[in-house]
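Bug report

Summary: structure tokens for Sulfotransferase domain-containing protein differ between web form and batch submission.
Environment: batch mode, default settings.
Steps: 1) Submit the sequence below via batch. 2) Compare with the web form result.

Sequence submitted:
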Amino acid sequence: MSGISPRWPQKTRELHNHHFDSTIWNDFVFRDDDIVIGTYAKSGTTWTQQIVAQLLFQGAEDLPVAEMSPWLDLRVPPKAVKLEAAAAQTHRRFFKTHLPVDALVYSPKAKYLYIARDGRDVVWSLYNHHANANELWYRLLNDTPGRIGPPIGKPPASIRQYFLEWLEGDGYPFWSFWENIRSWWEIRGLPNLLLLHFAELKADLPGQIRRIAAFLEIPIDERRWPAILEHCSFEHMKAHGSKSVPLGGACWDGGAQTFVHKGTNGRWHDVLTEDDCRRYEAMVRQRLGEACAHWLATGERLDRDASTTHWKRDAMAAC
């Protein structure tokens, strides 16, 4: 059966907390070539934004990526300010979101990149982000108008305790890890979504950049390829973090170089016990299933061939 359109996801709820105001997507006007970069958080978001910027602007120096690519569903500044700024952009737009799919307006017009990372590595990066946040960060999240729900507090001194609270509280004190990963995994067969993984970016950055370029239909000027690669390296991003980090890093002690921290995986090995890891791995399989759990841990898609026609099968079943 040819010519069948996929079932596009529908928004079914709003998410509000110290960070989120998902209602901004209800008023956002998409353009045909928009790019949306999604993650749970601390999974390679800023890295992917940098890659997209470098592809769009062919290796240009000192691009203000954080300004060019705002986090739309962050509730500060107010959505009216962000919507006006987004409407005024004249380049091909690229935004970031940390929402699960069912709290997002998903557009057939846009292209979506979703980046995942092993949850243990996420938490280690998240702890650095949270533990080094300064009073400005807390003031913006807790004391500005529009917050719904409890404020976010300071993290415990122990990173292991932080991990266990995050695991047992499903993303506490931020938002659900399982529903975020699961919601994007479940739509992996859609033709305008590309799944990425932090481990794949680490293992083969040139190959992944070319994969992203092909998906976004951005021709690469090969004369600019060395500059694109250099500007997407961790070393370059850390040295020039004030351009890619929100507010230039003003919300963290140590500034942008704290936000762009180590970019390494596996730092939990010497802290978590074997029992901790078994609890995490069992919960991943229980909440996400074996195929998604394997992908989340490794970046390997066991269903890669079958998933390309997943949305077509769903559409045919609906006929």
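Above is the batch result. After comparison, the two runs are identical; trailing whitespace caused the diff. DSSP finds 17 helices and four strands in the chain. The first strand starts at residue 35 and ends at 39.
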